[in-house]
Amino acid sequence: MAITTEPEGQKNYQAGGWHFAALIGGNVALAFGPWFVRMADTGPVAAGLWRMVIALPVIALLAWRARSPGPLDRRLALLVLAAGLFFALDLASWHVGIERTRLGNATLFGNSGSVILMIWGLFALRRMPVRREWLVLAAALGGAAILMGRSLEISTVTLVGDLFCLLAGIFYAFYLIPAQRARSGLGQWTVLLLVGLASAPILLAIALVMGEPVWPGAAGWAPVVGLAISSQIVGQGLLVFSLKHFPPLVIGVALLTQPAIAAAIGWVAFGEVLGWPDMTGMAFVACALLLAKVAEPRAVKAVASAD
Known about the structure:
The chain is an all-alpha fold and 307 residues long. It has 13 helices and no strands.
């Protein structure tokens, strides 16, 4: 799951081969995150803590090199704190869900923030959906019903995992709004740094309250270091480099590599075999994500202006 946001109002896209490679590479790197969460012998929330903490020095260096465009005033500080809170809740819910459901489901539902943000934007604007938005809702609800029904056939634990990942998508949608507003005043890397600083103590508190093991045990540091590198440094870094060069439609198509790769990892590493109903449900949800991703910048703007 990425914590970057697309730039608003970008019209003159100048994408080259390196930008496209970075866009795909960033999504591939992020797709390996759930596997590292499964491999870690810390608790799932504690794995999210290490994802943030281990990456902070590298992100701090990149933020320093980028130079924040403006000072951190009270308004921006509150926005970053709100973004950090919602991202910590997002990551905690998602990692708990990853432990309890199939990796393909976890990645799809964890990235459902665009659909949820579109729905929230409709409430904020107090209007009915248009045709494309009805298609998004129908595809999302139909696909989710199929996937959750299949999860229930396996175990109620798997269904609970789906719900945790869906909850993560809700938290992610509410992370996007303050993060996008703060990014215009502070810059992308500074926002990522401050979100990490704000979310780490919250993740630690949640892990301790849940009684999770925080320090790595027999599995060692490799899984949590791999999680930090793949998800927070390589994945985020490549997306920050590439996102501003592509329209939302291309970004949405590239995003769909994440659940496909995660499902393949789940099959190879954990024997999570997908049947035709699973693939049908995933296709419906993927279509909903793609269509909603196109509308995401407008949805962020609509919700922010309604606050």
